[in-house]
Design brief:
The chain is an alpha+beta fold and 192 residues long. It is 22% helix and 33% strand.
């Protein structure tokens, strides 16, 4: 019994109370200064995109040759851009699909805010911001004034399981890049 008491006392004093739990924190994120460059003129649309993004063909480029991705390697983010020429009344289908894709996030989003932007060059853009643990934090689509010739849609995605509150500075930064993309948007007519 005496040995057990000595052993117990030893364990009590051997374990110091110097341990303090670490406070919750987030990684420091250094964001580059915004700088933009023009798209190549082989696409039926033009906008300025970030110099910090790589311009990549979308995986379905064989069937959809005007679909691209703006890949932010340092941030693990992609802005997927899809383009469709508009014929007859098909614009309603494209707009409906765009709104359906956004509304699919209602389950996890605690806020969805849409802004309609009329650009000086006659284009109209819908810019939607989603808040919550959603896979896309921003979506947009752009049409010409009469919605008769062009339709472009974009969505922001991250390739990470990091919570969106940790990514808040990056999300804010990329939303500003998207708004710059939208405000510099123009259509080009290409001869096929």
């Amino acid at each position: 019994m005496k040995n057990l008491t000595i052993l117990l006392i030893f364990f009590c004093f051997a374990c110091g109370s110097d341990y303090l739990p670490k406070p919750k924190g987030y990684n420091r994120i250094d964001l580059p200064e915004a700088a933009y460059q023009p798209l190549p003129d082989s696409l039926p649309y033009f906008f300025e995109y970030s110099k910090h993004a790589d311009l990549l063909r979308d995986s379905s480029w064989i069937t959809e040759r005007y679909w691209i991705n703006l890949y932010y390697r340092e941030m693990g983010a992609t802005i997927q851009i899809t383009y469709k020429p508009v014929t007859d009344s098909i614009i309603r289908e494209y707009l409906s699909d765009s709104y359906k894709l956004t509304s699919q996030h209602n389950v996890k989003a605690y806020a969805i805010e849409e802004s309609i932007i009329e650009l000086p060059n006659g284009l109209y853009a819908s810019f939607t911001e989603l808040e919550g643990e959603v896979p896309t934090q921003a979506q947009f689509h752009i049409t010409d004034q009469d919605s008769t010739d062009h339709f472009l849609r974009g969505a922001l995605y991250f390739r990470t399981a990091t919570k969106n509150d940790s990514l808040a500075p990056v999300i804010s930064y990329l939303k500003q890049d998207i708004l710059h993309l939208i405000t510099s948007m123009q259509w080009r007519d290409l001869a096929d």
